[in-house]
């Protein structure tokens, strides 16, 4: 068997197109331009790449992009003061603070200082609670992107066995919540899970969010299962000065021989994450102005 490749890059472009159309209508009919503020503390080169492509795609979709780059030694008080200003700024509809933060900054404190209505990452405790209780929330972008790909591929997910590998607050846990809401039978595996291969072999849907290059191999996969690979891992460069290949948490070659469908890395979940960030910024803007929300762009 050879798996269908789920083209996240193409689907993300379609989502961005729909966001762009809605943004154009908001401008024409309501005179509103959504704005997204991205805050980056320190100089992590990988983060800077994401922040750049987020900024570019924000502008391409017709929204305003505000980038705040702060030095690595920024104090918590200064960062909280910036967040207060962004919370109060009516031109800013979405706020994203790039994680991880430098070690001297308390991530929970900083995230929970964001106005939940502008929390386009969906990491604020209010949004976590709203999602967990089935109320209208801002939904974290990466799990939302995975859900969109799964719905697109399967239609209904009802009754399917889903195994999420990883229990982080930004991917694993919200992913499990969304799958549960779509009536999957959900198992969350992690570093203490016993006989993890056997657990994963029971899954119709596998979402791998571990951060370990190519950990999940084809022999873990039930024939015909759908595999969503969230991992972004840079392998050590083969030659001096080279950049090193980007791979997921799944060994693509062996998994694709067994799976029914699989997302590649790059070109799978990553582009969907950014598309969902734009979708969330649009949703936050509509909610802020009491306008109808975009259809098919929320969970
Ligand atoms: N494509 C995208 O848009 C995004 C990609 N990512 C990528 O997704 C991956 C996961 O990110 P994130 O959730 O933030 O990572 P974290 O490091 O926060 O969490 C990793 C999870 O994997 C679990 N884990 C670690 N080792 C094993 C193991 N050997 N077996 C089973 N489980 C294990 C950990 O378990 P425990 O809790 O027990 O320690 C933890 O729950 C990374 O590669 C990251 O780069 C992240 C965000 C967005
Ligand atoms: N507050 C916060 N929110 C985040 O959503 C967040 C974060 N912090 N910190 C870092 C992680 C990581 N992340 C990615 C987004 C897009 C790609 C992406 O577009 N990847 C491309 C490839 C990019 C490349 O070539 O390097 C792809 O997979 O095709 C990857 C990773 C969002 N994150
Ligand atoms: Mg920290």
UniProtKB/TrEMBL annotation:
Pathway: One-carbon metabolism; tetrahydrofolate interconversion. Pfam families: THF_DHG_CYH, THF_DHG_CYH_C. Transmembrane segments: none annotated. Catalyzes the oxidation of 5,10-methylenetetrahydrofolate to 5,10-methenyltetrahydrofolate and then the hydrolysis of 5,10-methenyltetrahydrofolate to 10-formyltetrahydrofolate. It catalyses: (6R)-5,10-methylene-5,6,7,8-tetrahydrofolate + NADP(+) = (6R)-5,10-methenyltetrahydrofolate + NADPH; (6R)-5,10-methenyltetrahydrofolate + H2O = (6R)-10-formyltetrahydrofolate + H(+). The keyword Oxidoreductase applies. Residues 140-287 form the Tetrahydrofolate dehydrogenase/cyclohydrolase NAD(P)-binding domain. It comes from the Bacteria. Belongs to the tetrahydrofolate dehydrogenase/cyclohydrolase family. Residues 6-121 form the Tetrahydrofolate dehydrogenase/cyclohydrolase catalytic domain. InterPro entries: Aminoacid_DH-like_N_sf (IPR046346), NAD(P)-bd_dom_sf (IPR036291), THF_DH/CycHdrlase (IPR000672), THF_DH/CycHdrlase_cat_dom (IPR020630), THF_DH/CycHdrlase_CS (IPR020867), THF_DH/CycHdrlase_NAD-bd_dom (IPR020631). Keywords: Amino-acid biosynthesis, Histidine biosynthesis, Hydrolase, Methionine biosynthesis, Multifunctional enzyme, NADP, One-carbon metabolism, Oxidoreductase, Purine biosynthesis. Homodimer. Its EC number is 1.5.1.5, 3.5.4.9. The keyword Zinc does not apply. This is Bifunctional protein FolD. SUPFAM superfamilies: Aminoacid dehydrogenase-like, N-terminal domain, NAD(P)-binding Rossmann-fold domains. NADP(+) binds at residues 166-168, 232. It comes from Sinisalibacter lacisalsi.
